[in-house]
Amino acid sequence: MANLTWIKGMDSPNRTGRPKGSKRNWKRELERFISRNGTAKELKRLYSHLDTTKEQTEMLRWIYTMITPTPQSDSISSEEAEALYGEASEV
User: Fold this and answer.
1) End-to-end C-alpha distance for the chain, whole angstroms
2) Selection from 52, 1, 6 nearest residue 26 by Cα
């Protein structure tokens, strides 16, 4: 979202900038990517820039929860669904 109180040519409202060593939040980037209907190529770029296998796994799990349909009430109970999600997160 644009800063509506800042006008081009003014001093930056964030003079110190992002702290050194801080990382971009991949979840925020992924949400922005999905909301803008990005391409598969862009998603691969984001994934490849993650530093650790743990971050990559978290990203894949998060995507999985976004694209997996929620179970219908007549198919399995909420307890069974929670158990399945628990098992999937252990893998």
Assistant:
1) 36
2) 52
